[in-house]
TrEMBL record:
<protein>
    <recommendedName>
        <fullName>MalT-like TPR region domain-containing protein</fullName>
    </recommendedName>
</protein>
<dbReference type="InterPro" id="IPR011990">
    <property type="entry name" value="TPR-like_helical_dom_sf"/>
</dbReference>
<dbReference type="Pfam" id="PF20308">
    <property type="entry name" value="TPR-S"/>
</dbReference>
<dbReference type="InterPro" id="IPR046880">
    <property type="entry name" value="TPR-S"/>
</dbReference>
Amino acid sequence: MIDVGDSLLAYDVAKVGLKKFPEDRTLSQKAASALINAGSPLKATQILEELVAVGDRDVEAHSLLASAYKDLWQYASDPESKQRYADLAIARYKEGFSTTSFDAFKQSRVKDVGTEYYPCINVAFMYLLSGDAEEARSYSTRALEICRNLKLNSLGDYWSQATTG
């Protein structure tokens, strides 16, 4: 349903499913994703922070949570809130990226550690928007290296090519 643009309906369906299967982390992530797509990132952060608090340490959970914080950063009007949400987005993207390197990755549904450039490039993006060009450059260089390795191994896709650009 999210794919066809009815995010609120997708959230409602996920919410019903979560009443029957409250421990289903994929369903919780889908509910949060639907909320983000519907323009409700604050509610999505509540769902995702709960997931992370009970041990959901995969790259998808952290990246989705970071995306919600990035949206909140975008919506914030005062500098203090913008900085707080930027810091939260950076922290969660970094945690998502680190799951691709440590034991928590084993719990992830992602199949190949070497393909997880998207949390890395998003850390770079948030650092750039926060005014830290040095950190932005460092993370963008890492993301570029991952994407180049994907291309060398014929694993690149549209998004990895766009990231390289």
